[in-house]
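[Meeting: bench + compute handoff]

Bench side (C.D.) handed over the final construct sequence. Compute side (W.E.) agreed to return the predicted structure before the next meeting so the bench team could plan truncations. Sequence as handed over:
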Amino acid sequence: MYKELFQYILHHKQLPVPGVGTFLLERRSAAIDFPGKIVQPPVYSIGMKEDSESPADNFFIWLGNALHISPNDAITRFNDFAGEIKSRINNGDTIDWKGVGIISKGLADTVKFSPSTISSVNETPVSANKVLREKSDHMVRVGEDERTSAEMTDYFTQPEARKSYWWAASLIIGLVATVFIGWYLSENGVTIISTGNNTKLVPQEASVSYKILP
């Protein structure tokens, strides 16, 4: 019956055994092996908790079909199975349930359970090579907006706009003019005369433009 009950745990994830505990199918998630570039498959093992209840009625229907007996006979066979395990544990025996684990007597009349890894349901590792799609388009979150990867690529690869420096020439001319005006005023003073034309006018004799006849 050990083999049939092990298959039941694999398919239904748990099996309560009165007086012993409830056996549970536990799954450890797949793990990525970056150096080896593979994904390790999930690993399964059996765990046990001390609390246990009587199995549901449909369990005995399943067990009867597995053993080719009636459901009533399946109830009797399962109760004998649970009683045998409990009796052997109390006597200090160690039960090696293939695929499930080792059951023995613990401290203070408790049940000690050491699970075994279920190799029969392990899967094959999967290759994890990185796939590069050079021109694949996907959405990128930019602040509160969304942009496509192509739009962001164009944005960051745009040539820098040529800067105009016309204002620099205007600034230089203004500075030169300011310096010249300052120098001129410092030499001539800030008066109305200094800002006018200081060249002296010299009167010239007008040439004779007529002739007296005799």
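W.E. noted at the follow-up: The radius of gyration is 51 Å. C.D. will use this when planning the next construct.
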